[in-house]
Fold this protein.
Amino acid sequence: MDIGEYAAQDATGLAALIRDRQVSAAEVAAAAGQALDKIDPQLSAIAGERYEAPLGFDETGVFAGVPFAIKDLIVHAAGVPARSGSRLFGPGVVYPYDTHLMARFRRAGLATMATTTSPEFGFNATTEALAHGGPTRNPWDLTRSAGGSSGGSAALVAAGALPMAHANDGGGSIRIPAAACGAVGLKPSRGRITAGPDFADPLMGLGVEFAITRSVRDCAALFDAVHGSEPGDRYLFPAPERPFAELARTGSRRLRIAFTTSPADPDRAVDPESVAAVQMVAQQLSELGHEVHEAAPSIDSVAFDRANLDAWCSFLGDAVTGAAAQLGLTPGREHLEATTLACVEHGKTLSAFDIYAAERVFNTVTREVARFLTGFDVLLTPTTSRPTIPLGRLDADDPALDARGWYDRIFEYASFTALFNATGHPAISLPLAQSTQGWPIGMQFVGRYGDEGTLLALAGDLERAMPWAGRRPPVSVY
């Protein structure tokens, strides 16, 4: 199998070829290795070096032998160094055990070949960590950001080097890079996918685990393979009545869909091309037979931003001070980027009362969004306020920014995603449009809590009606 034949297949297609013995898992891994070695010098999406051999996997899994990668944040594999995108951890911390989700990836048969880049502790909408020696570049335009914080995974998937890769999302970190790179990014409902054993609710419940994929069928089939709780988890979802892959294949019922092009904070500007893309997709949804209305939940954006800032800074403060104590060092600019330090300092000023105040705000916005979605099945927005941003726009090592200044800079670009981390609702970004420069424009669809099935069924219909598989970035292995 040459790398062109390899890159032409999504994960479902590769798994079928391996299962039917048309090609061996070893041949697929060899092609993937060649693809990664060819493309990564241009993208800088792999943290360190790719592994000498794929990590062990269950040869009976649904994706047995399919190449994969894990992001350098939260999920870890036994014996593989993890750095959370930070120089604080030096060459990396090596855990003697898999996280629960990593074990599920192995049981699904995924052949993990590399660790992908992350910004420091994931708090950025681009992937340009100093720890990784340079920015991760967008395969559609090497001067542009691949998004963040799962930019490394998104860049490799979009460029054809991997059919899918692990990602996580605390404020948009699956959906933003999926939008920037032209891939599929599902943020599941809070609790759908275990974060154990290291976490119960990462980032005060904002953080969610899953993946970035090239196709909707891969997204749905992987979701079938890895969703669910483990003993000790706080959440227990009933088993779905039908497999998510079946829903994506058979399509959606007629839905009542709201759309908006305005972020919760009306002072945050939205690019006209992103506005036009939402309007175009809304028209397509109407033509597919759905009932479409312009409407949005009403949110106190000032209160929400303060609560979200405090949640992030308390998380960063706890993570950094705990790690520094274990490592026996005092963190400074030689260990951390300037804005991380600023957020840690803000986190240290917060009291338990501040955290409870943030929780109250999150409760209020969750109930408002849930109330809104009793009248609609789905909400459509742009994924980001503009198609992509130049490298350097979100410089996390800018000493002129305090915690609030850094927060505002991130969420001026990522103005549509963070709300649904706070509410826990599922949301998916689909690459349904392109800018005049040829960059992907992602569309975000938000569903009711626990209703990923409706999102995946609709996504399957839109992939068939508005296919993107034929779009190839200029930098790719196709």
Remarks:
- The first helix runs from residue 3 to 7.
- The longest strand covers residues 427-434.
- The radius of gyration is 20 Å.
